Amino acid sequence: MSCAANKPNTRPMNCFTQLSLVTSLASILSISSCSEKPTVEDLQKFTATESYPEDVFLDTVSNKRALIIVAHDDDDCAMSGTIARLTAKGWDIRQLSFTQHLVPGKGINAASIICQGNESILNGGQYRIGLDTMKAPYLPISYEEIDKQFHTEKVSLAIVEKVNDFLPSVIFTLDDVKGGYGHPEHVFISRLVLDLFQNGQLPNQRIYQSVFTPHMEKEIVYTWLGERLKKWGYPNASTLANELYGVEGMPEPDVQVNIREQAQTKMAYLRAYPEDVRKNLRKFLPYYEEFDAETYFSIFDREFFRVIEK
Question: What is the DSSP code string of 125-177?
Fold first, then answer.
């Protein structure tokens, strides 16, 4: 073998070679992208494997008025199909929250898609002490610390007045144990509504607390979201809440509601929020923007509630 044969080939690639490499790289990226697109099978592992009694009360109660009372207007995402279902049946439903978001380009709150709209719990003023300086206001804190951080009396007076003016038969909230995943504002408002209800200060007949089933919470919150939070360098607030409150998860549901007929309305509601809200919804509604409404809610076709009576 000559010395020339041992020299490395230092000639620049011609245009044909460069084009071939670019084409090959594009093909690889395309295949990789396609392989990462979620499938229906991916969704099915998240859906509830449990079954609960079908709710009867909401279809039979004569007073068709309800209030949704949550800290943030998007907190009702896991009950929004039920709300849309009741509205379609002639219910008068209003959403009350501390914070509100407008649909981009429309100047209205997204709640108007599923009910009669949103109004603020407080007409101005603080509801949580020091909120403007908190670095991680979503991380769970003890019930005792919640009592210290929130303006309980002011918020209580506002809720009692609004509920007694409206006279609903049902109030929808998140669960009072960990507020879905431990957000102190979720826990505060859900516990407060329950306390006022049990103390006889609210006239409604029942509270419906939106919850996941144990399987859903395990697969979505602890496994799927947990892995992503770890990758991103964030703590899993739900796991911290379990440790703090001495629980294994959200309270288990008492009833289920089929919301498949509300697929289009629920999807329109979820997608109506601005991007800063949708990025949070994605954490608890896996891949909801990757599928059409009929496909997605043929799989997630039920919503679940813990029901509390007087």
Answer: S-SBTTGGG-S-TTS---HHHHHHHB-HHHHHHHHHHHHHHH--SEEEEE-TT
